Amino acid sequence: MKHLLTTFFIVCFSGLGFCQVLSDSVVVDTKYREDQFYAGVTYNWLVKEPSGLSQTGFSYGLHLGFVRDMPINKRRNVAFGLGLGFAFNNYRQNMAIINEPNRGFSYSIIDDSENPYSKNKFSTYVIEVPFEIRWRTSTAQSYSFWRIYTGFKLGYVFYDTSRYEGSLGTFKYKNNDDFNAFQYGLTLSAGYDDFNLHLYYGLNSIFGDVRVDNEALDMTTLKIGLMFYFL
Predict the structure, then answer these.
(1) Mean pLDDT by groups of 10 residues along the chain of 231 residues
(2) Which domains does the chain have, with CATH numbers?
């Protein structure tokens, strides 16, 4: 029994010593960066829509990209972020886009009771450049923390489509020059750990110099959803 107790204490103290060596050997990264990859999904609301326009179905956005995190203080919980990303935006609504021979594209609000349709939407594919001012409660050894990231996002629409299927016929178009090539707006992401509320408000119109039923189409978008960040 005496020998057993002696062996037990030797093992315990040896283990403590080993753990101390391990803890002493852990190197804290004082130059760490946070949240440099992102992925998100949003619901896309149309704002400043013309009279009679309403959204139908689920309009959504998918977002993916990389942001270079650049801390500006010693604690590294305040930073600038500059990145590059991709977004797909889908808008389901009751505005028909039809390319008429010798007249170009025309825009009109559809009354579903008079001209029923099964599909009507337009979509944009966008290269995005986000710029953020970032605040968080992170440390070099913390993986769960609060964050508030706010900033500005510039987007280039490199591809767009519109599609209609209904009583007026079937129409599908690509790369309509009426879409504004450059989109820009304000962003805000806030949350804890993996789940972060994300907002985007567009500051310019989705379309250029376009009229629908003799009304200027100055429509922009408000996106609300979730953003997920990764190292």
Answers:
(1) 47 46 53 89 96 92 97 93 98 93 88 89 98 92 89 98 93 95 98 94 95 91 96 79
(2) 34-230 (2.40.160)
